[in-house]
Amino acid sequence: MEKSFLFGGFGGQGILFMGKFLSYYGMLGGHEVSWIPSYGAEMRGGTASCGVCVSTAPVGSPVVASPDILVCMNLPSLDKFEADLKNGGRLFVDSSLAERESSRADVTAHYVPAAKVAADSGLDGLANMIMMGAVMEAERFYDRELVYEAMKKTVPERKKDLFGANIKAIETGRSLI
Predict the structure, then answer these.
(1) Could you tell me where the beta strands, DSSP code E, fall in 29-160?
(2) Is the pTM above the cut of 0.90?
(3) Fewer CB within 10 Å: N-end or C-end of the chain?
(4) What is 146-176 written as a DSSP string?
(5) CATH number for 22
(6) Count of domains in the chain?
(7) How far apart are CA 46 and CA 44, in angstroms?
């Protein structure tokens, strides 16, 4: 079993954080993983994406050219990556920042207003983890213990005060599916 994920958005949305969290989650669950970040020269506001492979066997190639699961946190990412999603794949779109639906009939699309929900629920800056919760729920791979352990590894020491908010954001996202 191998699943490939591609996360896309702009710098400052926590796109790389999503991939790093998923990678730790997979490793702690006993899987082989790869994580490849990609971002523009601008740290905030430029493009950002990352590919993650989670597998029960060694990952043959860490490059995610045709993902099983595509997460688009803004319209430019949807425009750029939608055609790359595998036939039969799953698409997750932050519908509060990408105001169009998928043009593909061969994929299952989920429209999650992650940025709006984050703002409305006091989780500003955590739309990424709201979306991660939605992905975990839709794909049925949520394990509470692994979420906590992966979050401990992902949240840097200087931001440890955000640990609880990240967990709450994941739970909030799960409730949207």
Answers:
(1) 32-39, 47-55, 69-72, 90-94, 108-112
(2) yes
(3) N
(4) HHHHHHHHHS-GGGGGGHHHHHHHHHHHHTT
(5) 3.40.920.10
(6) 1
(7) 6
